[in-house]
Design brief:
Number of strands: 8
CATH architecture of the largest domain: 3-Layer(aba) Sandwich
Largest sheet: 4 strands, mixed
Number of helices: 7
Order of helices and strands: HHEEEHEEHEHEHEH
CATH superfamily of the largest domain: Zn peptidases
Shape: elongated
CATH topology of the largest domain: Aminopeptidase
Oligomer: single chain
CATH class of the largest domain: Alpha Beta
Strand content: 15-25%
Structural class: alpha/beta
Helix content: 25-40%
Strand order of the largest sheet: 1-8-2-7
Length: 276
Amino acid sequence: MHSCGHDIHTATGLTIARWCMTHREDLVGTVRFVFQPAEEGVRGARAMIAKGWAKGADYLWTQHITTSIKENEIFASRGGFLATTKLDVTFDGATPYGDAVTAAANAALQMLTLPRHPDGASRICVGTLNAQGAHATMQTEVRGATQTVADYMEEGVRRAAKSCADMVGVVSKVTLAGRAECLVPCAAADDLIERLAKVIPNVTVTKDRTRGSDDSTLWMNAVVRDGGMAGCFHYGARGRNGLHTSTFDAGGEDVTLPALELTARLILENHQKTSY
């Protein structure tokens, strides 16, 4: 289980899809819903965008629940998303005597002690390490405040894998598994999100607390580069246990109501037959 709210996002998406069908006589244009796989490995968006699913969109809206703010609070994500790269590493040796194990263990230590970049947040995580005799595998992730910082960290992973493999005479291979970008800001979209959120009863617009990485940035950046408008908003959970924990709990069905109403207002803003 990955406790990050993706089940909640799917439920809200389906609810809004049903709302659109109920109000389809009042809407114009085309509304498309994207239920994307493999977000956590930042692979799903990359594959779908490569197929052309982001082309031709005038507007694109994404959302995510968060425990960084309270229930009935919303903020527009004006930036803050870190660029990230997921890398799979393998070590293969000629003998079954543990050379690959040694290389992988040393590489993990080198990666976790990589010097950080002076130009912003730079992160490294060795998520898994499986090793036995002549074969070892690792799943790693780097993040950076800019693409330059993320690329710097990625080069560190590649360098550590090669040097540790060379040291014990095994072969290393680094494979790109997924990648997401920093967000290209779209002030018009962010302003619209905040303006519409402010008129929802009992909802408070709070300061931007965007953090971490998300491949929704690939969707938004693709639409903005193509001349469209794209934005992301976060809404608060009632449960205070953090995301990505085994005890994460949104805190009830109605916690999604602000997100549902804001999404409906965003759709009406640009798709209603008469002015909203």
